[in-house]
Every structure is written in C-alpha cells, then in structure tokens.
Amino acid sequence: MADAAAILGIVYLVISLIALVLGVLSTITSYASTADGYRRCKESIMGPWGRATHRIWTFDEFRLKVMFLSPVIFVARPSNTRGPIKGRPIFNVDGTEESYRQMRTRSPPEQEAYEKGTDGGEIPSRVSTVDDELASWVVLLQTLQRAEAEGRAWDHKVATATPKGAHFGEVRSTLVIQIQERKRSWDQMPANMQKPFATSTISHVAEMAALLGMVWTVINQDSWSLRAEGNGLVITSSSVSGLGIAVTFIVTGGSNFQANRTIPCHSAKEYLFGNVPTF
Fold first, then answer.
1. What element of type H or E holds 228?
2. 3-state SS, one letter per residue, for the chain
3. Less packed terminus of the chain by CB within 10 Å, N or C?
C-alpha cells in the first residue's frame, strides 16, 4: 500500500508540474501577443531596417511595446549637417558600399542573394500575402542608391573618355538625398496603416521624383491627389486620417540613370518649382 501511495503521489506531482509549465507558457504567450505590429516590422517588410526592431516591457502598462527604426528622408547639399532630428547623424545617398550599409539597404548582389535565400532570409518570391511585401520606402531607398551609383559611374566614364588634350572633369553633385534614423513605437501608427512608414515633406518628395527622372502629372492641392510617373517608376498618394498624406512608390519597369539623368545640382530645386533666376 505504501508503494502504491508513493507512486500515486509521484503521478500527482508530474501532473501538477505539467499543469504549471502549461500555465506559464500560456501566460508568456498572452503577454507576447500584446506586442502588436511586431511581425509587420520584420525584415520581410522593412528589409535590413527590420533587424533593429525589438520589443520592450513597459511596467506601467504591463505589456510589451514594439520599437522600430524608420528614416526621415530629405534633400540637401552634400555638406549639410543640419537635419530635422537634432543630435542624430545624417547619411548621404551616394551609391557606395558604405552608403548602402549606413542606409540599411541591400546592394544589388545582396538583394540577389536574399531573393535566392542564400543569406538565410525568407524568399520574397514565395510570399503571397500583401503584409509580407516590402514597404514602398524601402524600395525607394534602393532605387535612390542605384540611381546615384549608375549616375556617378556614367559621369566618371564620360569625364575620363574625353578627347586627347581636353579635360572636362567630373560633375560634382551639389544635391543629394539624406536620411536620419528615427525611433518609433508601433503604438504611434494610425489604425489603418499596415506597414511602418518613412517621413518626408511634399517638396522633398517632388525633388526626389525629379532626380529619378519622373514627371508630375497630378498635383491637386485641394484634395492632395498626387501622381508622378516616368522612367519605369510611379508615385501615388492617399489621405490617411490622423497622419496626413501617404505617398506610395512603385517600380513598374526598367529605369535608366545615365545620359538622361537629371543633373544633381542644387539650383535645379529653383527650376523645379517654377522659379527661373535672372541675371
């Protein structure tokens, strides 16, 4: 009888331990589910920016909060050191390997390797849901990097292929796209936004579109309906309650950033908005 009682006690103990483990796992799962938006800030949507996404515990609300980084994009001179966010470093888009790293953007070889799944990431071609597509600003940064890399390579080729005895020199860019990193919480996202967003202004978006060889076909300030297209690229807009104007960047075909590329000159900003200097 004593042996039977001991065995029965052990069985009860094992059952109690299993129940305890299941209860702890259930509690952990319930708290983990409070991290709204975590899967929408992963690398499959934000590219390398998703690697900075993390969750923090807030004791005052007793839940997990999702924190992520997104860029503030603007156009300025290469020597500019003043950005919209004080105390944060400014990075220039210039198409170099260092710029790709600073911008958290995949270079063409890295993107090709990622699509083939050789870097251990998910293969985009296997993704069938909208939530798993890259945010449009990630594609915009990749396109801007490519435009700078191809444009500067073409400038260098032309400058060094001049006739004997002639010297034109390389064209120095006086207008570049710059970014700063901004830390955000998913709690700040409007309810109808499904992906993290980058921040810019209408004027900077217009300048970036011009640098990419696009032409604005619709600029309606009454309804804030915007559309630019050209060079295999399209920009559209929509109004988001509680946020403002959301601009979407789309690649629709092949692009060329060589002979027909807009000269990255700071004076082009004046011409872009209809101001022609007089001399």
1. strand 225-230
2. CHHHHHHHHHHHHHHHHHHHHHHHHHHHHHHHCCCCCCHHHCHHHHHHHHHHCEEEEECCCCEEEEEEEEEEEEEECCCCCCCCCCCCCCEECCCCHHHHHHCCCCCHHHHHHHHHCCCCCCCHHHCCCHHHCCCHHHHHHHHHHHHHHHHHHHHHHHHHCCCCCCCCCCCCCCCEEEEEEEEEEHHHCCCCCCCCCCECCHHHHHHHHHHCCCEEEEEECCCCEEEEEECCEEEEEEEECCCEEEEEEEECCCCCCCCCCCCCCCCHHHHHCCCCCCC
3. C
> At 107, phi and psi to the nearest 5?
-75, 165
For the stretch 81-110, pLDDT in tens is: 999 999 899 999 999 999 999 999 988 788
pLDDT tens per residue, range 46-69: 999 999 998 888 877 777 888 999
CB of 225 closer than 8 Å to CB of 218: yes
Angle at 250 between CA 177 and CA 217, to 5 degrees: 85
CA angle 37, 40, 41 (to 5 degrees): 95
